[in-house]
């Protein structure tokens, strides 16, 4: 399975219409819908904010697109076709259009919305998707070197770090690293969503 490596944006102009494409790797349907809302709020003055996402959430695939006022099938579906063609999952793409006064026609809309999605996906860099889960790690200060050495050079996403009576890290890690961590003494591991 493939996804994209990072959140990104691209833009181009076609017959005075400005297109901005936003792409983001996501973990679930809620992430997708929140990102779409965020981009719509960022671009309230845009003529259209069309969107598409495909995500596997708790074993269920969700694939949804929205033309946001463009003629049916000319925006969201065109972007969805690009997602299907590139075989990416766990992704959301929003294409913002600022109308420039020249109509593009149905074929022009399909072509430009597909181009927006393709450029955004390429910019986000297609990579093999590696499933990770979120955990809170809690441990005493005398274990920090052991924990940090184990996490170093692993593909760990640090979400939070806390230094109170004990140290706590909120991380996203792969299953193999979880197996290594659970073998350690004085380390509390709690899975979180």
Description of the structure:
The structure is a single chain. This protein has 193 residues and is of the alpha+beta class. The protein has two domains: 2-128, 2-Layer Sandwich (Ribosomal Protein S5, domain 2), CATH 3.30.230; 133-192, Alpha-Beta Plaits, CATH 3.30.70. The protein is built from five helices and eleven strands. It has helices at 29-42, 76-86, 105-124, 144-151, 175-181; strands at 2-4, 8-14, 17-25, 48-57, 60-66, 91-98, 126-128, 133-139, 157-163, 167-173, 188-192. The strands form three sheets. The chain has a five-stranded antiparallel beta sheet, sandwiched between helices. The chain has a four-stranded antiparallel beta sheet with strand order 9-10-8-11. Strands 1-7 form a two-stranded antiparallel ribbon. Strand 4 (48-57) and strand 5 form a beta hairpin. It starts with a strand and ends with a strand.
Number of strands: 11
What spatial form do the alpha-carbon principal axes imply?
elongated
Largest sheet: 5 strands, antiparallel
Structural class from helices and strands? Answer: alpha+beta
* Low-confidence runs: none
Number of helices: 5
Distance between the termini: 21 Å
The residue fraction in helices comes out at 25-40%
- Give, in spatial order, the strands making up the sheet with the most strands: 2-3-6-4-5
* Fraction in beta strands: 35-45%
Q: Report the CATH C-level class of the largest domain.
A: Alpha Beta
Mean pLDDT: 92
Q: In terms of quaternary structure, what is this? A: single chain
